[in-house]
Amino acid sequence: MMDDWYFGGMHWIWWGLWVILIFWIFLIPYPTPGQKRKRDLAMDALRERYARGEIDEEEFEKRKKVLEADKK
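Above: the chain sequence. Below: its structure as tokens.
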């Protein structure tokens, strides 16, 4: 009867490892908030350059397409 308790703690360790593995699998594909913000900063900079007249509408649209393609 006492032999059943020797590996009782191992049961909880395995469950813990499975829970960690499942969380890790489902959380990895999602970008972190910092990654999204970096893309927004690039688009903000592009808009500012367009507003200041440093680039024309054609250049703005071309670069905007490139930034939007990186999002996907």
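The longest helix spans residues 8-27.
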